[in-house]
Amino acid sequence: RWSEYSEKYIAGNYSIEMGRLSGGTLYCNPINYAADETQKERFLVPVAKDGQIGASAMTEFNAGSDIFSMELRLHERDNKLIAKGKKLFITNGMIADFIVLYGRLDNGQLAAVVVDTEHQKLRNFRSTRVRTYGMTDAFVSRLIFDRVELPKENLLHGHGLDIAFHQLTEERLVISAEALGDAMKKILYSHAYALQRMQFEKRLHQYQVIRFPISKKIRELNLMFSALIQYARQMDEHPELGSSKLMAANAMGLKISSTELGFESAIHCFRTLGGRGFTRQYANEIGLLDSYCMLHGGGSNYVLEDSESRRFFKHKPTRREVEDIIPKIDY
Ligand SMILES: Cc1cc2nc3c(=O)[nH]c(=O)nc-3n(C[C@H](O)[C@H](O)[C@H](O)COP(=O)(O)OP(=O)(O)OC[C@H]3O[C@@H](n4cnc5c(N)ncnc54)[C@H](O)[C@@H]3O)c2cc1C
């Protein structure tokens, strides 16, 4: 089944796309970046090629936006790593065959290790669903690692933070694509209803109050699509842009704007459709809550905006300011 609601694929089902993002980008990208050839053969091929399910586990109860404060321990014992700790809000967690797990080694450094969940039967590992409003098909889960033994050769090479951050640009472009698809569907519903629905002997689109917000959203959607296609093509042609600071900033900006657009389009859709917007026939497909979730998924927008605005307001003192210091008198 594609979804809890449907036997078939629903275009623009945000939560299915989140599952795909998690297995595709969030799991595969770090492995492609930081695994050796043997690890790629064991952990990348089954997910990227053979359709097994991947997940990425960073977030913890106390380490949400502040991901650097994560506490899960990866104790080193001979040729094993012992994972102890909990993870929260992990997309695909309860159905994953493989998980990239982030935690701290004995020296305190962040690291990433691949967990083969043995089809969720791994000893001392438990996963349960977080019951969410919205994002139903993303199987958002809570994971418990109660001294889970992992072979040391599953450890990815390099610093965990670098591995985690490396995939962010691609992740944010994929989330932007999801958000724009989601926004497009909602704008289409609003537009079609406004064109056809007659009230007070006029079509709804003949009222400015209905027409203007939809037109504004169409304009924003078109602009963001152009940006997304341009960034995605640049990344395809020059994969090394995955490490570019400018591309990272562009992808972050697009993630913020596109997920906000998805959320606002959902609100306008509910408003335009009147009572019908709340019936089950539409509510599943329109889904206000999926787009609300994605203001936080992939990095919460407030935090991203804070980081973006700091960059815009970064103050580099001029040479004159640097030199214009009254010299200290040495008595
Ligand atoms: C649908 C979904 C799927 C997810 N999938 C995964 C996954 O697969 N793997 C994974 O590891 N994680 C996943 N997450 C977790 C996600 O990355 C976190 O929810 C996110 O990082 C925010 O953390 P938090 O929920 O603890 O919020 P908090 O960190 O508690 O933040 C609460 C609010 O405070 C704001 N805030 C926090 N700090 C600041 C600041 N410095 N300045 C201004 N505002 C601030 C935030 O923007 C937010 O609005 C998922 C989340 C969702 C919703």
UniProtKB/TrEMBL annotation:
<keyword id="KW-0285">Flavoprotein</keyword>
<dbReference type="Pfam" id="PF02770">
    <property type="entry name" value="Acyl-CoA_dh_M"/>
</dbReference>
<dbReference type="GO" id="GO:0003995">
    <property type="term" value="F:acyl-CoA dehydrogenase activity"/>
</dbReference>
<comment type="similarity">
    <text>Belongs to the acyl-CoA dehydrogenase family.</text>
</comment>
<dbReference type="InterPro" id="IPR009100">
    <property type="entry name" value="AcylCoA_DH/oxidase_NM_dom_sf"/>
</dbReference>
<dbReference type="InterPro" id="IPR009075">
    <property type="entry name" value="AcylCo_DH/oxidase_C"/>
</dbReference>
<dbReference type="InterPro" id="IPR006091">
    <property type="entry name" value="Acyl-CoA_Oxase/DH_mid-dom"/>
</dbReference>
<feature type="domain" description="Acyl-CoA dehydrogenase/oxidase C-terminal">
    <location>
        <begin position="158"/>
        <end position="304"/>
    </location>
</feature>
<dbReference type="InterPro" id="IPR006089">
    <property type="entry name" value="Acyl-CoA_DH_CS"/>
</dbReference>
<dbReference type="InterPro" id="IPR046373">
    <property type="entry name" value="Acyl-CoA_Oxase/DH_mid-dom_sf"/>
</dbReference>
<dbReference type="InterPro" id="IPR036250">
    <property type="entry name" value="AcylCo_DH-like_C"/>
</dbReference>
<dbReference type="Pfam" id="PF00441">
    <property type="entry name" value="Acyl-CoA_dh_1"/>
</dbReference>
<feature type="domain" description="Acyl-CoA oxidase/dehydrogenase middle">
    <location>
        <begin position="56"/>
        <end position="148"/>
    </location>
</feature>
<keyword id="KW-0274">FAD</keyword>
<protein>
    <recommendedName>
        <fullName>Acyl-CoA dehydrogenase/oxidase C-terminal domain-containing protein</fullName>
    </recommendedName>
</protein>
<dbReference type="GO" id="GO:0050660">
    <property type="term" value="F:flavin adenine dinucleotide binding"/>
</dbReference>
<dbReference type="InterPro" id="IPR037069">
    <property type="entry name" value="AcylCoA_DH/ox_N_sf"/>
</dbReference>
